[in-house]
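ugh ok so i messed up the first submission bc i forgot one of the chains. this is the corrected input, ALL of the components this time, i swear. 226 residues overall. if the numbers dont match what u have on ur side tell me asap before i send this to the collaborators (the ones from the other lab, u know who)
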Amino acid sequence: EVQLVESGGGLTQPGGSLRLSCAVSGFSVNNNHMTWVRQAPGKGLEWVSVLFAAGNIDHADSVKGRFTISRDSSKNTLYLQMNSLRAEDTAVYYCARITMTVYNWFDPWGQGTLVTVSS
Amino acid sequence: DIQMTQSPSSLSASVGDRVTITCRASQSISNYLNWYQQRAGRAPKLLIYGTSNLPSGAPSRFVGSGSGTDFTLTISSLQPEDFATYYCQQSYITPGTFGQGTKVEIK
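and heres the new structure output, hopefully the right one now
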């Protein structure tokens, strides 16, 4: 069964750091394109970071220089290292697989993990 | 960046109603348009990809259409489980930006 399970969220102060994990089963993170998407309370979806199967990465301008996406093939896990956190980073963070064929889409998604940045 | 604009932001409808949601892109995205459904407190779920293609398991009452900059999602007969928020996403430029969402509420 294909499943993504996020963890690592919690409460942290502005300027703090957190590392989110996305444990994957049913497919290899090494051979798939993976992404993080966040959703601030009561708001819409915002793409955050992408890690392509070839290893190239990209981040949204809002997190560039502060967040880093990575993967561990031995643990089949995707990560998001978040540094210099700000109040506006408060959100539920979802990981998802990107399927790229003629079209591309995000599916499946994990259940999400809540990050709260507050003093 | 490609901006995606949905309308309306919310709507009220009854079970059995036909519902249409519109999504407009700030530039042409051909037919690289996806739709997601997000029920309250749940993760988003892929509903339609490539403008009009239903993934396995998606109900046939969901119909997507459009091309270029203007797209629509139609629910032919609203069911109780369809009350949710719907997001469009352009996939013309990976990884893709989302619309702001349309919340479908019970009338």
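quick check: Chain A has no helices and eleven strands. that seems consistent at least. The CA atoms of residues 38 and 44 of chain A lie 8 Å apart.
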